[in-house]
Design a protein that fits this description.
The protein is an all-beta fold. The chain has strands at 2-7, 10-13, 18-26, 33-39, 46-54, 57-62, 70-75, 80-85, 94-102, 105-108, 112-117. The protein is built from no helices and eleven strands.
Length: 118
């Protein structure tokens, strides 16, 4: 079992920045990828960014829509993953969900709302 607690969402104007955090507890040693999905009203949940630890190296992957604006990072000592979001756009408005993958199963956080006003 893995528990994920998210923080950092909120309301920001277009062009602004937010940083999301997701702290994992429980069976953390089996976690491979961690990252963020988002779901806007009326749309499917989509992958925003993921980061996978392999040995001492973290490998990051981003959706094309956020490349160059968002940065995912992982503090393995704190079992926490971060999503730094810069140059936010109204189309980034969504509920952001943290996830942690163990084998074929994903654990999910409760979600945090990000609203970008124009």
């Amino acid at each position: 079992q893995v528990q994920l607690v998210e923080s950092g969402g909120g309301l920001v104007q277009a062009g602004g920045s937010l940083r999301l955090s997701c702290a994992a507890s429980g069976n953390i040693f089996s976690i491979k990828p961690m990252g963020w999905y988002r779901q806007a009203p009326g749309k499917q949940r989509e992958l925003v960014a993921s980061i996978t630890r392999m040995g001492s190296t973290n490998y990051a992957n981003y959706a094309d829509s956020v490349k160059g604006r968002f940065t995912i990072s992982r503090d393995n000592a704190k079992n926490t993953v971060y999503l730094q979001m810069n140059s936010l756009k109204p189309e980034d408005t969504a509920v952001y969900y943290c996830y942690a993958g163990i084998g074929d199963y994903n654990y999910w956080g409760q979600g945090t709302q990000v609203t970008v006003s124009s």
